[in-house]
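lol ok so funny story. i was supposed to be doing the assay writeup but got distracted and ended up predicting the structure for this chain instead. priorities right. anyway since i did it might as well share w the group, maybe its usefull for someone
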Amino acid sequence: MSGLALDVINGVVLGQHALALTLMAAWATHLRLRLRVFSLLSQSLTIFALLTGYQFVLFWIDGATGNPVTTFSRWFAPVVGAIIWPLLAGALGRLNER
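and the output, tada:
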């Protein structure tokens, strides 16, 4: 539902974000138990790969449907997500210990 809502809000092909989110959620679910035992660097790289995969699916659909491909800033989101992940994982780990 959130993917379809993103499609409507952004005015793109209906189902584009839904497909990308579904594929990345399936991949994340497949990796979830392994992700817990990865080092923090490996976790960040995995998060980077997931976010890059999401952006690539959107990029591919935009190209296939003839929509204008956005600028390089699209690829900035995975980098920011990978950088923020260690902070988020640390905060959630401390919260879980309580």
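The chain has four helices and no strands. The helical segments are 2-10, 16-37, 40-65, 76-97.
back to the writeup now i swear
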